[in-house]
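Notebook entry, cofactor series.
This is the third protein in the set we're modelling with a bound small molecule. For this one the ligand is flavin-adenine dinucleotide. I'm keeping the input format identical across the series so the outputs can be compared line by line later. Sequence and SMILES below, as received.
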Amino acid sequence: MSLLRSCKFLASTSSFLSSTRNFSKSSFRQKALQNWKRPSIDELGVPKDAWRHVYDRNQSKFNTQLLIGTVVFGVSFSAYVYVLDPGMIIDPRTVKYSTILPIIKKPDEEALQILSVESEASVLEEEDKVALGTSELEVVEELEVVAAVASSDLVVEAVPAESSPSEDKAVSSEAESVPEPSKETNAKIAPLAPLPEEIPYLLIGAGTASFAAFRAIKARDPTAKILIIGDEERLPYMRPPLSKELWFISDETAKRELKFKQWNGKERSLYYEPQAFYTPVDKLEEQKNGGISVATGRRVVRLDTEKQVAYLSDGAEIKYGKCLLATGGSPKTLPVLSNLPAAVEEKVTRFRKVEDFHNLDKVLQSSKSVTIFGGGFLGSELACALGQRSKLGLLEVNQAYQEAGNMAKVLPEYLSEWTTEKVKSEGVNVLPNSRIKGVKMTEGGRLEVELSGSKLETDHVVVAAGVEIDQALAAASGIQVDRSNGGYLVNDQFECSSNLWVAGDAAAFLDPQLGRRRVEHHDHAVVSGRLAGENMTGAAKSYTHQSMFWSDLGPEVGYEAIGIVDSKLPTVGVFAKATETDTPKAAVTKSNEADRSISEQMAETKVVETAAGKVEEGGDEYGKGVIFYLKENKIVGVLLWNVFNRMNIARRVLKEGRSYDDLTEVAKLFNIHAPE
Ligand SMILES: Cc1cc2nc3c(=O)[nH]c(=O)nc-3n(C[C@H](O)[C@H](O)[C@H](O)COP(=O)(O)OP(=O)(O)OC[C@H]3O[C@@H](n4cnc5c(N)ncnc54)[C@H](O)[C@@H]3O)c2cc1C
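Returned structure with ligand:
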């Protein structure tokens, strides 16, 4: 009954509206209006009813019309929202007429995912604005104070923050999104799903740079369809814990599922996102709101950059709109270790992936001795991590390398010596100045390793000698390679050629401050992946934000660095005595993040000027300190030794690129005399 009444009401309303329209258009009325004269007061009609009554009646008529108008508008708007693709509400430019759906539609998981990415990003953008608006300026102020104190020629302008809020957004959102360990974290997924023939965004390599890139793409283009192709049979994961925290786990299930405890004891997953986060590859094309899929166990062998087609080793072809090469690198093998007999090869691990971790862990359970080749950060971290088994008398751990001390390519000689002693104290038999000459099988089935000057028997060999970039892919695809560092040549926007970008370990990029470089570090993969992702959506941003890197020799000793840290350069180090709060463990406890590129984002950047304390240069105690690397007397690199969460200051000092009369005064900015 009430429905009937409503219909009648609507009909009368519409006839009212149409009569109004006819009135204004009728020629008869037009004529009448032209001849119309303003009536005098006496000629005006007098209502029969009381004025008040007439007024109330008119008011109620107008209110009814207003109500009807509002209802009609509301109904039309709701129909507009539900009938058309909800994606257009996020970005009206994406409306496609082919996406008209049945009127009542429950938002699907995909849409919810996009909305959550969006809102997360916008909230973080606000947070970034606040952070950048205050903290960076505080650093600038502190620099100015030091300039005055030191009477040096340090002048710091209140320049805008290096990283724009949107540039930081992806990493910050990454920080938010790194999942709590879930049952799904052992995220192997079935390979060889049918691939789409064409995809707007193709990311090659399922590693850290791709992960950062897809977050950036999604933040700027919420309905993007992104396909990641990775030759490992795993979803994107972070590598740093493979040589650190994962070795400190005793729970076999957690190990298998790649759950690890941060130095502060908090449990995390190695995977960036669980499987449920991703859209199955065969469903990606039909997702009107876009999505991210990972095709695992598939390898791209060639790109036709003109036709924008990627060719896979299994014969599949994919046409792409924009493509990112984030293929990282493969572990270098030493010449004497190439072409080994199969039986020897079986006992050699070139350490890079999850499988290497699992295999090595398994092998070492029945081994008496392991020998690590490589004195860099990976070799030294692994040596320290395995040293705990040596301390328990379970395993002999040798570390051999040709340099004079641990991390000698990075640390100044005195600090490298100190570190070598530290690694020894972790139960490692360190063999510096040892060039490997050959490995062969003994009659007893062990390995005999011949080093320059000595021989040793061991059960297993681990090679940690850096990575090399896939030259075959570059040659097959006509991609230019930088001869000096082997990376794929890109400009300052990480663009390699039209519609093709490169990020992470594989990129030989143009650093406006430090020249052409290639960097094999986690934070660089995040920073460059994010920038490339933004540029793939048209941001046209240049690289300005210097990435950092970190290395931990177990929970007690660690460093963070930025810029060019090359021990061949002159250095100035300023040290203070460390306390028990100056450790990676304490730093992680404070920030609650194992991934330092995230904790860097969260770090307190307020700098308090140190009162004139005792500053030691050199000396025997290198508990904590700051080391400046100089080129033509200007700072080109900063290494923070057991000093954490001060990377913003180092970045600022590096950006200045100035020479200083007294670096101990600049060191005070890092507040190394105060506990963490
Ligand atoms: C054990 C370990 C510990 C580390 N610890 C630290 C640390 O403490 N601090 C630090 O700063 N850095 C550390 N790093 C370095 C850091 O992890 C790397 O710099 C980072 O992972 C590089 O990211 P990426 O995305 O460029 O490459 P990757 O993470 O290597 O990802 C590339 C992916 O692409 C795949 N791929 C390659 N070619 C193809 C192809 N043609 N088709 C399909 N897929 C392909 C690879 O298999 C790989 O899965 C560590 C590295 C390792 C191995």
